[in-house]
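Convert to structure. Protein one:
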Amino acid sequence: QVQLVESGGGFVQAGGSLGLSCAASGSIFGSNAMGWYRQVPGKERELVAVITSGGRTNYADSVKGRFTISLDNAKNTVYLQMNSLKPEDTAVYYCHANIRVTIFGRGRDYWGKGTLVTVSS
């Protein structure tokens, strides 16, 4: 019943910046965590950044210092600000959320359809 809608993917030159946004809609009691994953051909999907409802963040080593994740709990929206982009950041970026749809329910995983980020050299 929950949908994640991503926006902000596109083309950017190396060294540039790009911002991603993901809004969760539907029947939502609360989110435990929201984050971003990415995947390229030949590699497993990897965690880029995650943020809990309490504000704790975790980043992949490869993006630390360059990417910033933030969460608007009221809007159930997660953002990823990507700075100093490198060609190796090129990937399909997927929004992920662990969301409780009822007060008694456990958190369930939801995924966006993905948005392509291409960083040119």
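Protein two, convert as well:
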Amino acid sequence: VVELVESGGTSVQSGGSLRLSCISSGYTYRGHAMGWFRQAPGKEREAVATINTGRGTWYPASVKGRFTISRDDAANTVFLQMNTLQPEDTAMYYCAAPPQGDYCPISVTPPYRHYSWGQGTQVTVSS
């Protein structure tokens, strides 16, 4: 069974920083791409960061230069460093993993295939 658990979300003032973590159980990160997504009320889930096995990364224009994704395969953990947070960053943040043995890149547009999702961690940025 794949279980992803996100942590690190909280309420923060505009301009602040947070580091989110996603730890897996029953899943091996090594060899797999990983991603972070977010979903705000009334909006569709959107990708905010992906990382491949070669440490190559992707970010949308909305967060590029402010967010950084990284991974520690030995610890089965993926991180999202979020700097200069703004109210528009308020959302539930989820990490995503492809099925074990699926070594394709993380999709940044739907469909997202059969990804496993964590329960999410809420990030709220106040002005």
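The radius of gyration is 14 Å. The chain has a mean pLDDT of 94.
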